[in-house]
Design brief:
137 residues, mainly alpha, two-stranded antiparallel ribbon, 2 strands, elongated
């Protein structure tokens, strides 16, 4: 197995690269045959694809860190993001017979649950549900 890898790296790849028709000047592109153009386009596409897929995870991580969003640890994606801490106080006396409070942070009626957790659970595989409170348990 190592012999095959060594042969590939030391012999085959350099021999292939020597055959890639890369002109030394810009005007040299005009002298390329159709076969050379196909060879050059295929080679450029392969190098581009390898470069793209090799760097994509790092670029995605950089963008994620730069935007401040980290879906692995951030729960609140949109509610009162300008506030250092989101705190809602509900007076027990004003509680009706029962109330459902959001725990997934996706409700459009936050802090009250609007059922957004259902789609959140489907999208993420999570199992979050509302906090349900009722008087006279």
């Amino acid at each position: 197995m190592i012999h095959l890898f060594a042969t590939l790296v030391r012999d085959k790849i350099p021999a292939y690269l020597e055959g890639v028709p890369i002109p030394r000047t810009l005007s040299g592109f005009l002298d390329l045959s159709v076969k050379d153009w196909f060879h050059l386009v295929f080679f450029s596409g392969a190098v581009g694809a390898i470069g793209y897929y090799a760097t994509k995870p790092y670029i995605d991580e950089y963008k994620k860190r730069k935007s401040g969003a980290n879906d692995d640890s951030v729960v609140n994606l949109s509610i009162q993001k300008g506030s250092p801490k989101v705190v809602d106080v509900v007076d027990i006396e004003s509680l009706g017979e029962k109330a459902a409070y959001c725990r997934c942070w996706r409700s459009k009626k936050f802090p009250y649950c609007d059922g957004s957790h259902n789609q959140h659970n489907i999208d993420t595989g999570d199992n979050v549900g509302p906090l349900c409170m009722k008087k006279n348990c």
